[in-house]
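Predict the 3D structure for this chain.
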Amino acid sequence: MQNDDIPLIHVFRPAAPIMFSGGQQVSQQHFIARVVALSRQLPNTPYLINLCRDRYHFALVFCAALVKGSVNLLPSGRQSQTIADVVADYPDCCAVIDDDEELAEIVTLDLRAATVNIALLNNGQEPELPWLKGNQLAAIAFTSGTTGKPSPNRKLWRTLVGTTRMLAARFVAPEERPTIVATVPSQHMYGLEMTLMMALHGGCVMDSRHPFYADDIAFTLASLSDSRLLVTTPVHLRAMVATRTKMPVVSKVISATAPLDKLKAAEAENLFQAPVEEIYGCTEAGSMATRRTISDDNWTLLDGMTLMMNKTSTEDLVHVQGPHLADAARVEDRLELIDQHRFHLLGRSVDMINVGGKRASLADLTLKFLAIEGVEDGVIFMADEGEGRDNKWPRRPVALVVSQLSLHALREALAQRVDLVFLPRPIKKVAALPRNDTGKLSISLLQALLK
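Done. Predicted structure below.
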């Protein structure tokens, strides 16, 4: 599958549903007709920033750009500065929206106006299924910026297709066609792979809605029949468990973007009466491995992928290979390889801290913090050097927390879970953490909030 032609839809059944939009089924043939028609109306620019919030609209634009030969730009967020940074690096681009969002200094196409003139039939004939070169550049995805400025990662069509087929082999039973409901945006790599790409090449059906609150998620799932697959994040799972909203039974719950602790995974399994599985991945390589949280501390690579360890004088470098990847991709996290197909995640390289000669992972410290009864949300991170009330504090762990507990009670509870040298100082209570659509936190926003 290097540069072979690959169809837009893996198994093309014209009358079969590919999505639900507005409560109505969208057939594969109907979808293709609109994609081909829209591709002829898109501006002649090499890049498109796809900001459509509705998943059906996002899917139309993403696929129409592929057919036209344009590249989808997938920014890490919707903040004006994030978009401005993308435009600065890709000035010859156009943004496509489907709401009243105002974007300064960029050519914008409102899909709501464009779709009025899209004929569902092209010159009275049904269009043929588009095929694309495997090496066509399909998208440029940007990292979340949790540790600095977002960096671009080029995604070939065969890479997206290959990852999706591996995920489908892991999560979808033969002859099953589950409907995917997701709480994450399609612009994120995890969201793209587990929504649109699973509809195109994973044999699934995608629901266009983007439920956020527990009641909305329950309503969306209940409105769908047959097998349902929920794609979400640890932040959403914690909220759903906390509200105790009765949830419809699903075939599987998939979580990613941050580690999920076993207790919350067990509570989520009880809530949905279904297994909860995690995906491990990175923007550079896409989804790489999975595990069922309650029963396995280790991760199993997707079939066809392998890990390589290269030792240097200062560190161990881990790379992942796969037949769908253009090159071996470096894994920035610290992994303990069990064999070529299984590993234990020790933490991100930039996530590891050394205090008093002892090492720990900030992600692991945060998980222990979140496990405290009464902590609604929280994060432990490294503070910049700054001025305290009396003198400078060195760079050390600090915490922001959403909780009704007293600071004394929080310190006491955390001291029972972590080594005292890693106790954050200060711990500050806030009304909410500045999480993005996937539940991730930008270090720059955390530093600003701390100050």
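Residues 316 and 447 are 30 Å apart (CA to CA).
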